[in-house]
Amino acid sequence: MSADTAVGVDWPRGRVRSGPLALHFARPGERSLVAGLAWLAYMAVAAIVVVGAHSIIGDAWSRVANAYYVLYSRDPHLAAIGFVWNPLPSLAVIPLLPLKTVWPDMVATGFAGSIISALCMAAAVWEIHGIAADWHVRRSARLLVTLLFAFNPMTLYYGANGMSEAMFIVTLVVVVRYLARWAATGQTLPLVVAGLGLAAAYMTRYEAVVAAAGALGVVVLLSALRRRGHVRERIGEGIADGAVLAAPFATAFIGWAVASWLIVGDPFQQFTSIYGVVSQLAVAQSSVAQSTGQGTSAAYVWIARQLLGLEPGILLLGLLGLAVTFRGRWGLTMPAVAILGGVVVFAVFGFLTGRTLGWLRYSITEIPLASILALAVLAPDPGGAAQPRLGRARTGAIVGKAMGLAAVAMVALAVPVGAMTMLNPADNPSYGGEAFQLRPVLYPNEPIGAITPFAQYEIGSQAATYLDQMNLGGGAVLVDGAMGFPIILESRNPGQFITTPDRDFQSALLDPVSFGVKYLLVPEDVGYQSLDAVNRAYPGIYDTGAGIGQLEAQFSSGGNNWRLYQVLS
User: Helices 366-378 and 139-150 meet at what angle, rounded to 10?
Assistant: First the structure.
């Protein structure tokens, strides 16, 4: 590239000369400005919600904990990241953890996870804008749809709260974008990028299996249809292209299962572990079913209300997307529906069959799906279709504008309706609903009457402060990290804990005296906390000490209760 050449710059370039060398700099382009604005908004929301109100979602915080154990536990090792949940959200957090020495809240509130989710959601905004640019959507419509996606209330919240949804969305949107490029060009490189995106999606969330199946079906079908020759040859070509796409995903899938099998003796701990999805479903399903109607005909009304609450115009957008598919925009609509729509369909299926709970966030991929369908409607017909007669051209232009306006209106409608759905407790189960999670922000002066995210933070602060003042040595306190991670993360002395990822945890749990354990931290045996390893090893210990411990202290906040027992020698 010559010194005077720049690629992909949207704004005028500046130039600074120093001797014979010419250095070029570029003002940020439209896409960079939009993504940067979105990132600032997500960080601002994270500061208010997570750091300010201490409304910290346990799943997000626990992923920071998984990363923390790798570096700062009593027994630091890479496998401490765990095999129940996908590793990429925790791996991404690790480089930020040393900043805790400068700002403890990076770990103590899980803010490191919020930084990662903000970056990922901003990257998703970048990719949505990139799809619009790839498909030559005019600037005003491109900006409007991108901004509506960026500031949809669900996008805004999950870009800020440190959950894995943001990372999952950006990986899937990358897959959609590059499959659309492959469909338009037939080149191999976009197919490889899409395959890598699927691998990253699987290392983020297990629902990526459904997205991979949808993407593979689209690639095999389109590859076979675009070629000439005998049916067998066309199918063979389709399978070959499908293999290129599937190879990175298969590598990630098999590699993660083998690593889990070799290290913990089980390839699929997400299903078999006591902390996995099956156990969590068994604990929470009865209470959730009462509010959602799961297992009855009311479940269909519940899930329909959620889907239409997130995207009230999804049915119309689907019809408009179908219409433009037959006008040559199938290269964008088919990957979007197969990948993002496939995940939504799986969420619906999982809820109706009792395999998942009715959390609103499980259907969050409906939001980028709606935005991409709107962009497909707004895009001009590819390939320069033959010009119709004048009268037909005018009619077609009017119809096209009407369809475009309708698509944008449906995406815009999702902003206020989505906000009302999020903040309406009737649309969210008590444990996982956004209204429940945001209670400390919406009602900061309301007494805590349940195990809210704020109560979880308060318990961690109380227990960590108490233990740190005791100046205990290494391995003096045994606690199940799956339940007690707020205490570990808020402590200034993580080495004092023997926790679940430690390789000698089970031995210490069964014989605490021999391992020098002085104290046991025990949560009240209710809800998810019934899965706690100490509660399972010593039934009734929270109430009585189970003959091995003497009550030292109790920590309570709302409905969340923990006790510290001194081990009897």
Answer: 170
Same domain, 309 and 218: no
- pTM confidence score: 0.92
Query: End of a domain among 444, 462, 477?
Result: 444
Confidence of residue 266 (pLDDT cuts 50, 70, 90): very high
Token pair, residue 124, equals: 């998703």
Contacts of 477 (CB under 8 A, 6+ apart): 467, 496, 497, 498, 517, 518, 519, 520, 521, 564
Residue scoring higher pLDDT (437 or 69): 69
Q: DSSP character for 446?
A: S
pLDDT in tens, 332-354: 999 999 999 999 999 999 999 98
Question: Quick one: 328 and 432 in the same domain?
Answer: yes
Give the 3-state secondary structure of residue 83. Answer: coil
Q: Which two tokens stand for residue 418?
A: 């989505």
Residues 286 and 435 in one domain: yes
Please give the C-alpha separations between residue 194 and each of 174, 199, 374, in angstroms, as whole numbers: 7, 9, 22
Q: Rg (Cα) of the chain, in Å, rounded?
A: 26
> Given pLDDT bands bounded at 50, 70 and 90, which one contains residue 468?
very high
Q: Domain total for the chain?
A: 3
